[in-house]
Amino acid sequence: MEEDAETRKISSSFLRDHSYATEAADIISTVEFNHTGELLATGDKGGRVVIFQREQEVKSKNQPHRRGEYNVYSTFQSHEPEFDYLKSLEIEEKINKIRWLPQQNAAYFLLSTNDKTVKLWKVSERDKRPEGYNLKDEDGRLRDPSMITVLRVPVLRPMDLMVEATPRRVFANAHTYHINSISVNSDYETYMSADDLRINLWNFEITNQSFNIVDIKPANMEELTEVITAAEFHPHHCNTFVYSSSKGTIRLCDMRTAALCDRHAKFFEEPEDPSNRSFFSEIISSISDVKFSHSGRYIMTRDYLTVKVWDLNMENRPIETYQVHDYLRSKLCSLYENDCIFDKFECVWNGSDSVIMTGSYNNFFRMFDRNTKRDVTLEASRENSKPRAILKPRKVCVGGKRRKDEISVDSLDFSKKILHTAWHPSENIIAVAATNNLYIFQDKVN
Amino acid sequence: MDTMFVRGLKRKCFDGEEDIEGTLAGIKAIPSYNLQRQSLLDMSLVKLQLCHMLVEPNLCRSVLIANTVRQIQEEMTQDGTWQMINTQSTGQASLDRLVSTDILCRSSRDQAEGKHVPAYGTFNKDFENDQAQDSSDTMSTASAVQAPRNLQSSVWEMENPQENKGNFQKSLDQIFETLENKSPNSVEDLFSEVDNSYYDLDTMLTGMMSNTKMGHCDSLETFSSSTNTASNSNCKSDLNDLDHIVEILVES
Questions:
Q1: Which of A71, A85, A228, A268 could pair with A250 as two cysteines, CB 3.0-4.6 Å apart?
Q2: Which fold has domain A81-123+170-442?
Q3: What is the ipTM of this complex?
Q4: Which N-terminal residues, if any, form the signal peptide (chain A) (predicted)?
């Protein structure tokens, strides 16, 4: 059927490639491909970072269509739980965000952050080791100097590959509130970190200073009605960034205009639909994620029920709005009661900015093709997909007769939420974090 | 997940077939809009309070809930519900009552004066201050009021707890008198006054009888549009949960 073929175009018959469960069964809190897509980093609630590397493509006649799989490359503990003695509060070690730096030499660099501290990690390989020291023997024991009669030059000999992660910079003590976003600038020299009320600009080389570029803290905290929810630098213009708020607005700022970017250059807000107004209107309009398109021409925002695409040149409304799970609109009160209404879903672009993806409940995630206007719902679960099986589109039944393969709204599992997903920068490979499992799906060739 | 409102209600699994008998047997009057709104307000205040017991409250969530509370109270002020209840219970001039709602909408000048800004003003510090004050507290109303006093004045930070205490306390007393409706002085009464149907807010716009697994707030979903006749199924509230709620409020 023609319809099926088009649906397949988006999902392109995604295969379940691999599913990884983290050892400690910790909830995955962030997923990010690096700029080439060779590496995939995940952060979890326990403060650990696990990096997967794509193996070289195997072209054998047995499996002509087999693409490189992702295998664990490095695991390290990025953040530890801390205690803030001033406030008598624990600081969670949960990794909120990971952002890769573009690769400039043999080593890989990434930023990882918890609520308070950003760290720059260097991940490097070691596959040779020096042998033949003069002052110590191969076990590392010191040799008796009087026994040394000959001097030799140590030589490098191959060893088993070892991947080391070392913290190169720690950017601490700059945030009173919880960091929700970090974003590397296109100049590759600076990056920003955003918390609920402030955004700071850092230089990678300087850890004891940062510039505050946005501050929305009111003089009187009782007047606080709006917080920053996400922020990102423009992919090409190093002076431009956007930040979103809990009131459903996006502000674009230009750092050239002033040191403190409290005045926005552009203000994106969609007028409210008065017919849809309820006590939950504000909560569901709160933006949980904002992402520039790769082209830099559009921004995508995620609020509770929709994904919106905005043209940077048009501030008064988005150019596209996609319903993620509108069937939840009538359940908002229950979702408010069980706190699900505060879940922060992320959204991602594919490499060509033609398809956008975001998560939902019941381990469902949704893809929207911006050109064909087709959308698909897929499920990330072990039970419903064998390895190499093609993912079957899912459907939620909103009322009336439920067909055989459909799921009714009332049967949805709200504890199974897909908040974090990532899309390979150039290929149709996606990573989906379902609680403590990571799923990687690849496009089926042909 | 917030399990506080989990009730041991029997739920029918909705498979597209409706139990006609159950429908007829369970028809009750839908909770009025005012009651629904009141329920939402109560729930929101409890949520704000609960978040103080966590390690460090999620600021975004707190702000959104507080905005919702403010919105409800503004609406209640506008349609006179607030004022009316206040007049009935205390018989005082309505102007005073309007002032009390300003606490949430705007901060009073009195609170702003004479403040110093500590580097890290936090709710935790204020909490300790408030606890110390409790012994000299002359309020006779329920401890539920005390806990929200902490939260209203220190939802995020309070710059100078001592000076704000007097104004805030008095105003919040008034606010919470309205929550307790007519006369009840105890938290138990607060909850018992609420219609049982609050706990079973399966009222749907379309009159669907399906019981959701998710919760009881479906009647509140109708806020944005006019409610058609809808029916409630006959479900009981779980009073054990009420006791649990009471315990938490009293202990704070």
A1: A268
A2: Methylamine Dehydrogenase; Chain H (2.130.10)
A3: 0.89
A4: none
